[in-house]
Structures are given as structure tokens and as C-alpha cells.
Write a structure and sequence with these properties.
This protein has 13 helices and no strands. With 265 residues, the protein is mostly helical.
Amino acid sequence: TMGVLPATLDFRMPYTESLFILFIILLLSGMQREWPNWTLAIVVGAATGTRPVGVVLIVPLFVHIVLTSKSRWQLIREAVMVIPASAWGIGGFMCYQWWAFNEPFAFAKVQAFWATPGVGPENLIEKLVGLGSFEPLRMVYDDTCPCYWAAVPPANNMVFNLSFANPIAFGLVSFVIVVGAYTGVLSTREWILSVALLAFPYIMHSDRTCMMAEMRYTSVVFPVYVIAGQALARLPPGVVGALAGISASFLFAYSSLFVCWYWYY
């Protein structure tokens, strides 16, 4: 499923998603194989240095420590020692930015340049209400809002407009995560990881960027591929082939538009 899904467009471009998802797979595999917590911390730290959203991997790591600790003392000791160390990647990058630019949070502050003018909450309460009511998703389909999908080319074609597809990708992946958690297909670590990976960009800046790049963010929610693979295994080969062909066609179209310099995020 990972090979032909349209969301995996960025795996084929000079972005960090492909390396980031490798660290996610290593983390999940390491927790399944019961690697030492310090080894898992090294993997999580590398992920935080790859993409800032990697800090959410600390959450499933902490859950893993809670589930595997044999005593309260071991839990406290492991959490106090391992969790801070698991942020070594982004910590080192912040130190570099502090030294080079005198601003350790430059990587976060630069995100303000991606915001859409005239869009976004004015205070925390407004932000929480907007996120809770899924206002960022609704704004994309409101033709009176600056976030309207047709403001981004190809404006006359919703089928190949990634701005139109971003909220849909977010909704589909959210639904799959809920189903996977409810049915037990996803373990506690897996569904917590999935929720954290999906929630982080949504909470941080979806209301300011009109859900920009949400499909890109969903591409690294690795447990979704596991559920998709299990679902496809139950379908007839002809249906699987047809779905793969349709998906690959969208992947080809998105890739073509991207390399033609469309604003494709």
C-alpha cells in the first residue's frame, strides 16, 4: 500500500518523510522486540532531528516504558533518565540554531511565513473552539474564506487539487485510526503514535495554514498502512489491482503537477 498511495508523493521528493517513517518503523519494531529503552531513545532522538513532529514519538516511548516497567521505581527511573535523552536530535539542532542565528526556535518561528493572511484564531479560547469544531476543515470548502480550495491551482479541477484533498486525507486517516483502535488491530502503542502524529500538525498550525500539507503529514502515520494492507488482503485480486491502478494514477498526476511547479502542499 505504501508504494502507490498518493500521500506517499513526498517519499519520492527531496523531503525528510521517507527517513522519518524509517525511524517510526524502527521504533515500532524495537518496541515489539523489546529492545532496551536506551536503544529506543536513540531512535526517537534521531527522529526528532529529522522532523520537529518527531517529538511526538516520545509519547509512545513513554507508554512503552509504563507498560514494560516491572515496578514503580523502575518506571520513575526509566522515565526520568530515558525520556529527556530521547530528544537529543532536536535538542542538538536547537543548539546549532542558537549558535548560528541566536534563535534556538528558528525552525518553529519560520512557520509563520506559511500562514494565510487574514486566517487564524486571535486567542487560545478561539483556537480551541475552532479546532474542536473542525473549523480548519470547513474553511477549505467555504467559498467566502481565503482558505477556499479553488484559490490554489489547479483552481478549476477539484479532482487533482491537493488543497481540496488535504482535509479528506485527514478525515480518512482519522477514521482508519479509530477503527483500528476500536477493533484491536492496532496496539496501544500504535494507535497512540498514530493519534499523536495526526494531532500535532492539526493543533499546531492547521487553523493558520488552511490545512496545508495535511496529506503530507498523514503519509508518515505508518500503522495506517498496516490496516490498509490487511483490508486489501481480504479483497479479490482484481479489485486490489483496480484500486492500486487508480491510486497510482493519482500519485502520477500529483507528482507531475508538483514537478511542474504547482503550489502543491
